[in-house]
């Protein structure tokens, strides 16, 4: 692997099979039949994703996209393809015909300046489908807004995700229930949510979150099926986690 073109954050985890396995086993029950991975990088997590009816591995970096394409097994018989895709700027109309039921990302949202826009586009893609399976967004993100620092900035992170994060002044309030509701706050201490703005106490959409895996409803998002903590380092600093949303 050419480390001059592959970001350290990706190359350093390329051989972390136990870590990758833990992440995948956590989300395995929620994978659908037609999957889009956002920001697949060099395929560290792509290799674990199921090859059912369809698997699209997307990436914005053309060099990394070439590495992804080189790793596709001919035995996949056309089920797996790569796609250059930037959800911040690209139109998603071409993905409508794919009838996707799952959009997954691993350590990607924190690299995106307008993550709320990207989340709304993810929902747009899923809601355009008409397949028989549940439509889900699954995202693995770094936890704890207060832990954001120079290492994050050096990796190109705009943020960490923490229940204490408040709406930033550069963002207008977004409560349009026709789009992706940005008030997703189903959380517990030490768990990382998919997306957070202000809320009252341990609640989401006015409902208490009692325990891990609590089921909460949102007219815009559907059900938050699971909030999962990542492996807990010492004192939980930098703990990661994922949130899963079903529509």
Overview of the molecule:
This protein is α/β, with parallel strands linked by helices and 247 residues long. It has a single domain, classed as Rossmann fold (3-Layer(aba) Sandwich), CATH 3.40.50. The protein contains 5 helices and 10 strands, in the order H-H-E-E-H-E-E-H-E-H-E-E-E-E-E. An 8-stranded mixed beta sheet has the order 3-2-1-4-5-10-9-8, with helices on both faces. It has a two-stranded antiparallel sheet with strand order 6-7. The chain is globular and about 45 Å long.
Structural topology:
Elements: H1 8-11, H2 17-27, E1 34-38, E2 54-59, H3 62-70, E3 80-84, E4 102-106, H4 115-127, E5 136-142, H5 150-154, E6 203-204, E7 207-208, E8 216-218, E9 222-229, E10 240-246
Parallel strand pairs: 1-2, 1-4, 2-3, 4-5
Antiparallel strand pairs: 5-10, 6-7, 8-9, 9-10
Q: What are its keywords?
A:
single chain; 17% helix; Rossmann fold; 247 residues; alpha/beta
């Amino acid at each position: 692997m050419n480390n001059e073109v592959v970001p350290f954050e990706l190359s350093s985890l390329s051989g972390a099979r136990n870590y990758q396995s833990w992440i995948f086993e956590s989300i395995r029950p929620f994978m659908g039949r037609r999957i889009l991975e956002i920001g697949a990088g060099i395929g560290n997590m792509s290799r674990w994703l199921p090859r059912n009816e369809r698997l699209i591995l997307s990436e914005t970096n053309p060099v990394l996209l070439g590495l992804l394409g080189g790793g596709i097994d001919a035995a996949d018989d056309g089920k797996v393809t790569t796609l250059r895709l930037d959800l911040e700027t690209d139109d998603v109309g071409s993905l409508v015909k794919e009838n996707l039921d799952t959009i997954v990302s691993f350590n990607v949202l924190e690299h995106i300046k307008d993550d709320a826009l990207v989340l709304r586009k993810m929902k747009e893609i899923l809601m355009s489908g008409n397949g028989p399976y549940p439509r889900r967004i699954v995202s693995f993100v770094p936890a704890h807004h207060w832990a954001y620092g120079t290492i994050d900035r050096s990796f190109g992170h705009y943020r960490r995700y923490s229940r204490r994060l408040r709406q930033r002044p550069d963002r207008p309030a977004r409560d349009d229930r026709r789009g992706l509701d940005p008030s997703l706050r189903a959380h517990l201490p030490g768990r990382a949510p998919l997306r957070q703005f202000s809320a009252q106490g341990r609640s989401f959409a006015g409902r208490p979150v009692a325990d891990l895996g609590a089921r909460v409803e949102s007219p815009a998002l559907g059900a938050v099926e699971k909030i999962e903590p990542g492996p807990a380092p010492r004192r939980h600093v930098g703990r990661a986690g994922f949130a899963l949303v079903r529509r």
